[in-house]
Specification:
The chain has helices at 22-31, 47-50, 79-91, 129-144, 167-175, 187-190, 211-223, 242-250, 264-272, 312-321, 348-353, and strands at 15-18, 39-42, 55-58, 71-74, 95-98, 111-115, 118-122, 152-156, 178-181, 196-199, 202-203, 206-207, 228-232, 256-259, 285-289, 302-306, 329-334, 342-347, 362-366. By secondary structure, it is an alpha/beta fold. The chain folds into four domains: 15-109, NAD(P)-binding Rossmann-like Domain (Rossmann fold, 3-Layer(aba) Sandwich); 111-147; 148-262, Tetrapyrrole methylase, N-terminal domain (Cobalt-precorrin-4 Transmethylase, domain 1); 265-370, 2-Layer Sandwich (Methyltransferase, Cobalt-precorrin-4 Transmethylase, Domain 2), CATH 3.30.950. The strands form five sheets. A five-stranded parallel β-sheet has the order 3-2-1-4-5, sandwiched between helices. A five-stranded parallel β-sheet has the order 10-9-13-8-14, with helices on both faces. Helix 4 (129-144) packs parallel to helix 7 (211-223). The longest helix is centred in the middle third of the chain and has 16 residues, at 129-144. The protein is globular, with a radius of gyration of 24 Å.
């Protein structure tokens, strides 16, 4: 199976993506680097796709959707449906790429490097995608040694209230050419800055872009000479993949700066007016990933669990099993510092007794410092 490497003008193309999940989101994100005109059809469309300038419809595909289409991406996750759509498209002479099925592809999506008007694509006839990406990254690293780039700044947005951003964070946003932002930031506030906005949010079970893709998007933007901001909710150095991005960029010659943000634990303490290290009550604190594969129960008097909404029952059971008393107070807070902020007072025993159902994003404060709230 051989593919001819060619460039296709898509400014006037009628492009259709059938599918709205993880793979479709990946294809749409790449496509948006070249055009803002495409249509996405799927019974359920991801938030990542909805954040793009494409037209989308949440409904099942019908044959009439192929009318006038010139370029088609089929990414439904249903192999039989993918095959049926491919057959219909073939009858109409539509250039089609069927995800995870090279034998049914008229074209494939290569690993791409862009620098202004220069575009380099690396492909392997759909046989060795990882090798294509590795070679693309080597090209990007080589290019970075040939030019000076402004670099990338990782900026903490804080817990949600834009007024909690640092002066240095505001300056970075004002100077940015492009901002890659997470889900938990104020979109209306971001639109007050002149920079291009690119959504790369990741919530539990819903990723608009995978980490490897985010890494390369940051690299590519920096190599184009843009002033790049990677904006993360909370503090970028806490549960935010910052080290992966820093290592990836610096290994390819890109300078990285970090602007810290107020982490949600600090914002929770301020909003609830509770000292996390109250004298005589707590001399130690642990910040914990509540979404870990198994509940983590470090030996500290005050525990703060991030991203643990779906595992509160298991965490509570593990803490009691480790020796925490069942009546240990727990303060739960969602959307801290925003207009949608809510607080819930409970105990470990109560969280064990019934399956919790609280709004997200959620942070949990466990310990005696919460007893008088």
């Amino acid at each position: 199976m051989n593919f001819l490497p060619i460039n296709i003008r898509i400014s006037d193309a009628n492009i259709l993506i059938v599918g709205g999940g993880k793979v479709a989101t990946h294809k749409a994100t790449i496509l948006n680097r070249f055009t803002d005109k495409a249509t996405v059809i799927a019974p359920e469309v991801s938030d990542g796709i909805k954040a793009l300038p494409f037209h989308w419809q949440e409904r099942p595909f019908v044959e009439a959707d192929l009318e006038g289409v010139t370029l088609l991406f089929v990414c439904t996750g249903d192999h039989l449906l993918n095959h049926q759509i491919h057959q219909l498209a073939r009858q109409r002479g539509i250039l089609t790429s069927v995800c995870d099925s090279p034998d049914e592809c008229d074209f494939t999506s290569p690993a791409i490097y862009r620098d202004g008007n220069l575009t380099i694509s690396v492909a392997s006839d759909a046989k060795d995608v990882k090798r294509s990406i590795a070679i693309r990254d080597r090209i990007a690293a080589l290019a970075s040694t040939k030019q000076q780039t402004p670099g990338v700044t990782l900026v903490g947005f804080g817990p949600g209230d834009p007024e909690l951003l640092t002066v240095k964070a505001i300056k970075a946003l004002q100077q940015a050419d492009i901002i890659f932002h997470d889900d938990l930031v104020d979109k209306d506030f971001l639109r007050t800055f002149p920079a291009e906005l690119v959504y790369v949010g990741k919530r539990s079970g819903h990723h608009s872009a995978e980490q490897d893709e985010i890494n390369h998007l940051l690299l590519e933007a920096a190599l184009e000479g843009k002033r790049v901001v990677r904006l993360k909710g909370g503090d970028p150095m806490l549960f935010a993949h910052a080290q992966e991005e820093i290592r990836y960029l610096e290994n390819r010659g890109i300078e990285v700066a970090v602007v810290p943000g107020i982490t949600t634990a600090s914002a929770l303490a301020a909003r609830a007016k509770v000292s996390l290290t109250e004298r005589g009550v707590s001399q130690s604190i642990a910040l914990i990933n509540g979404h870990a594969n198994r509940p983590l129960t470090p030996d500290a008097e005050t525990l703060v669990y991030y991203m643990g909404a779906s595992k509160l029952q298991q965490i509570s059971q593990a803490l009691i099993a480790r020796g925490k008393r069942p009546g240990t107070p727990v303060l739960l807070a969602s959307n801290v510092s925003t207009a949608d902020e809510q607080f819930f007072h409970t105990t470990l025993a109560e969280l064990v007794e019934k399956e919790p159902n609280y709004p997200t994003p959620l942070i949990a404060l466990v310990g005696e410092v919460a007893k008088n709230l």
